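Hi all, posting the design record for the shared folder.

TITLE: backbone redesign
STEP: 1 of 1
STRUCTURE INPUT:
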């Protein structure tokens, strides 16, 4: 599996042209783990145009309808999607469930699901409706956790949907319920010392 994992810090320091150039060279790329970015369509378009075998995407942060539309438009054959520990709008989730016909594995464990009420306020969704559950039941694997007893869910509530990963154990962000996306020790490119030296926060 040809995999790329990018941290938020790294991503923010690369220019848009730099990312596009990199993607052009990743012809064999099959899997990408990335933080939420402001304008996702160009990344998805780059992946679609250059990485013919691309099949797995993991997003860390927030996932809205714009992001979901970019994924369904440019990567319609995506097989695995993990949104684990992300803030996800119900519109985005429905878009993914309804439009990604080749999707086999979806992970929305410990996500903060919400929709905008008519009064403009954010309404947290604590249970999936039957329509979403029915569509998800057709997937080979569907990982879903929303529980007050779960530590990851508790952290999501505490951080209001955008996890402050730096506050938690180093292994926490590398975990995934989807086996092929679980990094274990992979991705530990820098030691704590180096992280400190390169930190811009
Ligand atoms: Zn959970």
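Okay, here is what came back for every position:
SEQUENCE:
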């Amino acid at each position: 599996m040809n995999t790329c994992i990018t941290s938020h810090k790294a991503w923010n320091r690369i220019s848009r042209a730099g990312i596009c150039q990199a993607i052009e060279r990743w012809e064999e790329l099959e899997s990408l783990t990335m933080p939420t970015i402001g304008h996702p369509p160009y990344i998805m378009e780059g992946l679609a145009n250059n990485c013919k075998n691309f099949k797995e995407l993991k997003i860390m942060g927030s996932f809205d309808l714009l992001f979901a539309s970019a994924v369904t438009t440019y990567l319609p054959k995506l097989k695995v999607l993990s949104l684990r520990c992300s803030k996800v709008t119900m519109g985005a989730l429905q878009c993914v469930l309804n439009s990604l016909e080749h999707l086999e594995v979806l992970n929305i464990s410990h996500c903060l699901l919400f929709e905008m009420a008519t009064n403009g306020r954010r309404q947290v969704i604590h249970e999936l409706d039957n329509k979403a559950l029915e569509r998800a039941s057709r997937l080979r694997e569907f990982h879903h956790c929303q529980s007050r007893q779960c530590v990851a869910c508790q952290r999501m509530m505490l951080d209001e949907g955008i996890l402050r990963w730096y506050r938690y154990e180093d292994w926490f962000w590398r975990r995934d319920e989807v086996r092929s996306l679980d990094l274990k020790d992979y991705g530990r490119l820098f030691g704590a010392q180096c992280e400190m030296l390169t930190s811009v926060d």
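COMMENT: Confidence is low (pLDDT under 50) at residues 197-201.
Let me know if anyone wants the other runs.
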